[in-house]
Design goal:
The protein is an alpha/beta fold and 280 residues long. 40% of the residues lie in helices and 15% in strands. It has helices spanning 7-15, 78-91, 103-114, 143-155, 157-169, 175-187, 190-201, 229-238, 254-257, 259-271, and strands at 18-21, 26-30, 52-55, 96-101, 119-125, 216-223, 242-250. α2 packs across α3 (103-114), α4 (143-155) packs antiparallel against α7 and α5 runs antiparallel to α6 (175-187).
Length: 280
């Protein structure tokens, strides 16, 4: 007799979904480019006594099902956003707070616009709707910067990873974190990483921001190579219901380099929501 698999089994395998904790609301933690769910290990456990927590690996990352990576589907961030809606349908209970790092903050925006009734709030850590400077908009990079970055990545992915990962991590007093991010980048399948980098760094989701009417926390670092303060301030002006919180930190991954400050900021934000999002 053939073994039957449910939709949740398929989604679990595809995105390596891990469910922990319990509570009347669900926090969904989604990592950034070149990372995996292990990057949440210093933050997510703090919420498990009060919330259901759902951790995922984007398809192509971590222990996701690499055979599910379809370049056509993932040629825009909407493909990953659709995956996250599948995860939420299968594993979330109650209101959902989507916690997205870096590019996954925009994945959260797209998911939130497609199914607004599913989301109580969004937490965006180091988000950027557009990495390329455009007129008055300061994304942090010129178009030539991004072209050069993608060309280098295309020709020498491991070399690019070894140079870029420590710079992205920052955290000058914690060099082991730069090593960890380098190793994470280097574990990613190079062909998938090259494709996802192109989708990530050439994306522009500024037009979607005014349409997201969900309470949103923007967690921005005071010194971030990838998402400078100008981007956080732009998003704060553009998102209808946003709170901007600056963490005193060098780097793009405060959930690793400043986990206590990140957890405190998320708790403060959750306490302002009128449901289970209480600091306890």
């Amino acid at each position: 007799m053939a073994e039957s698999f449910s939709v949740s089994d398929t989604v679990q395998k595809r995105n390596n979904v891990q469910v922990r904790g319990d509570g009347p609301a669900t926090l969904v933690f989604v990592h950034g480019f070149g990372c995996d769910q292990n990057m949440w290990r210093l933050v997510a456990p703090a919420f498990e006594t009060r919330f259901r927590t759902v951790l995922v690996d984007l398809v192509g990352s971590g222990n996701s099902d690499l055979s599910a990576y379809d370049k056509k589907k993932y040629d825009s961030l909407q493909g990953h956003a659709d995956d996250m809606l599948d995860v939420i349908a299968a594993f979330a209970t109650g209101p959902v707070i989507f916690v997205g790092h870096s590019v996954s903050a925009m994945i959260g925006v797209l998911a939130g616009l497609k199914a607004p009734v599913k989301f109580a709030a969004q937490v965006m850590i180091g988000p950027s709707p557009c990495y390329i400077n455009d007129g008055d908009y300061v994304g942090g990079f010129t178009r030539q910067d991004i072209t050069s970055l993608l060309e280098t990545l295309e020709s020498n992915y491991l070399g690019w990873s070894s140079n870029m990962a420590p710079a992205i991590m920052g955290a000058p007093g914690q060099p082991e974190l730069g090593v960890e991010l380098t190793n994470s980048f280097c574990r990613t399948d190079p062909e998938i990483a090259k494709h996802f980098a192109r989708v990530t760094f050439l994306s522009d989701h500024r037009a979607e921001l005014p349409r997201l009417d969900t309470p949103t926390l923007l967690l921005q670092c005071s010194d971030d190579l990838i998402a400078p303060l100008s981007v956080g301030e732009y998003m704060h002006r553009t998102l209808p219901r946003s709170t901007l919180r600056i963490i005193d930190n060098v780097g793009h991954c405060p959930h690793l380099s400043e986990p206590s400050a990140s957890t405190a900021a998320i708790n403060d934000f959750l306490s302002t929501l009128g449901h289970a999002g209480h600091a306890g």
